[in-house]
Amino acid sequence: MTFTITACGFVPNVWILIVLRAIQGCFSGYINNANAIVAASVPIEKSGKALGTLATGNVVGTLLGPLLGGVLADTFGYRESYYVTGVMMLVVFVTTALFVHEQFTPISKSQMVPVKQIFHQIQYPMLIWGLFVTTMVIQAANMSMTSVISLLIKELAKDQSRVALVSGIITSLPGVVTLIASPLLGMLSDHIGPEKVLVNGLLIAIICFIPMSFVTNIWQLGVLRALLGISDAALLPAIQSLMTYYVPKSGFGRIFSYNQSFQAMGSVGGPMMGAVVASIFSYQSVFMATAILEVANVLFLIPTTKALWHAGSVKDRLRVKEGRTVGDVKN
To answer: How high does pLDDT run on average in the chain?
Structure first.
């Protein structure tokens, strides 16, 4: 990714840029591997907090990245922003190579457990599929606004000269809140169960998206976007925690990679949905469409998590898994 991003700054035409971006996509598996390493390394009773902290970097980077890109482009230029980003990726490479270590024994292809068998080993296979779909919907919901939010802000703003700056601030507000809330909600998921945090996080998102459809000024939109950061802080860490607990370690890499693929599908489908809805109805209608999508997701997810709602904290579940009941533990 360091090479491809840096090379984008030297392209002579758009076709080579497209090819380099496609190659970059083939090697952008860092996040799911980071999730798998953390999930396998951290004591499972602390997985919510650990994955919540890790997810903070992912979510905040996704939300603040466009703002940073805009600042770099305005300060240095479009091509130079690729060079700066390439240097940042080089720093990530060096940091990972020097400081990230794992105990890993390669498995030959003949000994590797097939994905179908991994799903047979999972206690709640429908839960995992529900988490895949939820990851896709969450990402689609976050990305559905990217194609229209600047246009909506331009429509609402009284001072047209500051539209770019205001758009960057409004876009980044959820990331600021997520930065603060994600580790806290991760600890909460360890205490009450990640499925409760997940479902309630989706409900908070719905509560935020519906009034966004009726905003009449930028301040209303900003407040609701900031509250949406609480939802973002709850969702992805809870999904990662549930996968960590219910997926066997032999399948971590592949299951987390599948989850990343569903997230990528949301990244593609979200902006397309937003653009289509905005072109047919209005910019605000995108928020209502996103809320409807989230409602459908909640209705789909609740049956898949129903068996977990009375399982207690992660520590309780671990002890039950070891053969002791939750009642025994409490006693």
So the answer is: 81
